[in-house]
Write a structure and sequence with these properties.
Blueprint lengths: L1 H27 L3 H29 L1 H20 L4 H29 L2 H33 L6 H17 L14 H19 L4 H21 L10 H5 L1 H17 L2 H12 L4 H8 L1 H19 L2 H19 L8 H28 L6 H31 L9 H27 L7 H8 L1
Helix pairs in contact: 1-2, 1-4, 1-5, 1-6, 2-3, 2-4, 2-7, 2-16, 3-4, 3-6, 4-16, 5-13, 5-15, 7-8, 10-15, 10-16, 10-17, 11-12, 11-17, 13-15, 14-15, 14-17, 16-17
């Protein structure tokens, strides 16, 4: 129950806060760029600290790190709701991302440690379904609360739910999961990794400008230095050998990155298309866009169970195939595209992502030894965050090059639609890369049972 509620909280906040952003901008007189950082600050902090906290959790206790993370989420949610200024809100959101990094890096690892290979897919499927339920109900509940109670009320939900999760874990979860290791924690590597990832993500958000290119290059360089350093320390923050020697782990994470990179911005792009190019109201657009996350929530538990019985590579690759087809169809968007066509593509994306997510998570977590579960969980979470940032950065880059500096609401509808279609075409190509990685990863069934016996 604790893991399921924890999985619901973050996507709910992300999707509900999107509806509240205009009200926040009006209260603090923010520009569009400043408003974007209300969400970006959270993603940056989460992405930067996922892997380091995964290693810390393996060393000092996954339950302990999870509890501290939930406490930080409770405090930071309260501070966000009370924010008297823009700067205060950014700091509070950053701490909220820090708490999320601590819970994300341990949640999947705890579930994987508790449940064996025969049940793991089903449990992870339920966990993924909670994520999509959060994404589905977030805009509806967030819009209602923002209109009736103000944007600050949106933070009351994660605060209350985090308190429930915290109370349940403290009262009912007695076991601790820890893998003691000798030597000091790799603080230097963790610092280089965090700075490099923040630089990369911030730089991508500033492309195609010169500063954005330089900062992106600096971020890539720091991450290369981090990878080199991690191969030379006795107790690395991230076990690079998991990528070098574990083909299934490496290619499954690559598949995760490309899938999120190809799909995360889809709802954002379709929202622009429906409202600015087709004249839909926000409510009408929201009702249409709910088809994708609703199918994800319905099918994810079934897909997880399916990956317990059928080779996960087959399930995941099938899902990515559905996604490629859906994105490819969206590349032919025009101003008179029928509504049934849009619903069909959204259903294809929903089915595709449901078949992909929980089976791919099951594959990643089953491919490593028990002592690396925290690092594996954090690495997979980082691939998700990186993919989401890359997806938005790519969409913004195409808009900047294709439409120029004009605001989306003032853009020519034909040019806007053409730009959106181009982005979907690029996303389809990116997803094909992920499909190839998924197909090349190798077989899983038989290997996870062997690893379980060894541990």
């Amino acid at each position: 129950m604790a893991a399921t509620l924890g999985a619901f909280i973050t996507p709910f906040v992300l999707s509900s806060l999107t509806v509240a952003l205009p009200n926040i901008g009006r209260e603090f007189s923010l520009s569009a760029v400043e408003l974007g950082w209300v969400s970006t600050a959270y993603l940056l902090t989460t992405g930067a600290f996922l892997v380091p906290f995964g290693s810390v959790a393996d060393r000092y206790g996954r339950k302990r790190v999870f509890i501290v993370g939930m406490v930080i989420v409770v405090i930071s949610s309260g501070l966000s709701a009370l924010a008297p200024s823009y700067g205060w809100l950014l700091v509070a959101r950053s701490f909220q991302g820090l708490g999320a990094a601590m819970t994300f890096s341990t949640m999947t690892a705890i579930l994987t440690a508790v449940y064996g290979p025969g049940e793991r897919g089903r449990v992870l499927g339920i966990n993924v379904a909670a994520v999509y339920i959060g994404l589905s109900v977030g805009p509806v509940v967030g819009g209602l609360m923002t209109e009736r109670l103000g944007w600050r009320s949106v933070f009351a939900v994660p605060l209350a739910m985090s308190l429930v999760v915290l109370g349940f874990v403290l009262r009912s979860v007695k076991h601790e999961w820890v893998e003691p290791r000798a030597g000091r924690f790799d603080y230097a590597g963790a610092a280089v990794y965090a700075v490099g990832l923040v630089a990369l993500m911030w730089g991508l958000s500033r492309l195609p400008g010169t500063i954005g290119g330089l900062v992106t290059a600096a971020g890539v360089l720091l991450l290369v230095i981090f990878a080199w350093w991690e191969t030379r320390v006795a107790q690395p923050a991230m076990n690079i050998d998991l990528f070098r020697r574990n083909r299934i782990f490496a290619l499954s994470n690559l598949a995760a990155f490309t899938n999120y990179a190809a799909t995360f911005a889809a709802s954002f792009l379709l929202s622009l298309y429906l409202q600015y190019a087709r004249g839909f109201s926000p409510e009408e657009a929201g009702l249409l866009l709910i088809f994708q996350p609703a199918l994800m929530a319905i099918l994810s538990p079934w897909a997880g169970r399916l990956s317990d019985r059928i080779e996960p590579r087959v399930v995941v690759s099938t899902g990515m195939g559905f996604t490629v087809v859906g994105l490819g169809l969206l590349a032919f968007l025009h101003q008179s595209t029928p509504i049934w066509y849009l619903i069909l593509t959204l259903c294809l994306l929903g089915v595709g992502f449901a078949l992909f997510s929980s089976p791919n998570t099951n594959t990643v977590m089953s491919s490593v030894e028990r002592r690396f579960l925290g690092v594996a969980s954090a690495t997979l979470g980082t691939m998700r965050i990186l993919g989401q940032m890359f997806s938005m950065a790519l969409a913004m880059l195409v808009f900047a090059l294709y439409l120029g500096p004009v605001e989306a609401k003032d853009a020519d509808p034909l040019a806007l639609t053409a730009g959106i279609a181009l982005v979907f075409g690029i996303f389809a190509v990116v997803c094909i890369v992920g499909l190839l990685a998924s197909m090349a990863r190798g077989t899983m069934h038989g290997e996870d049972e062997t690893a379980e016996r060894q541990n």
